[in-house]
Amino acid sequence: VQLVQSGAELRNPGASVKVSCKATGYTFTSYYISWVRQAPGQGLEWMGRIDPEDGGTNNAQKFQGRVTFTADTSTSTAYVELSSLKPEDTAVYYCAAGTDYAYAYWGQGTQVTVSS
Cβ atoms within 10 A of the Cβ of 32, count? Predict the structure, then answer.
């Protein structure tokens, strides 16, 4: 099983970024895909998750209106898009496959840097 994420991104404040997470080795619709980020010197922060089976999503209130989760079952790829980026969005973004209570698999992480 692997979750392979897209490469590092550099964005200006106010821009958007879209990170991908391609799943292989298991049935894509068997697990939720959650997105978690870790800012420099901080702990893990849960952003939200998507159920690839029906596209249903749930997100942390903090990101309401700024985050979009999608999943393409034809390519077994999940995406997170974050808009109106701020410098404090600089973090390593991870995808994780699992349930609402435990993650079975993790992606390798994607560095997103927001700086002018």
Answer: 23
Strand, coil or helix: what is 14? coil
User: Which of 111, 110, 104 minimizes the C-alpha distance to 21?
Assistant: 110
96, β-bridge pairs: 34, 106
Backbone φ and ψ for 5, nearest 5 degrees, come out as -100, 160
| CA dist 65 → 16, 60, 79, 108 (Å) | 13, 10, 16, 26
Read off the pLDDT of residues 36-62 as tens digits, 9 standing for 90 and up: 999 999 999 999 999 999 999 999 999
DSSP assignments along 24-57, one per residue: ESS-GGGSEEEEEEE-TT--EEEEEEE-TTT--E
Angle at 109 between CA 105 and CA 115, to 5 degrees: 155
The residue count for the chain: 116
Q: Percent of the chain scored above 90 by pLDDT?
A: 98
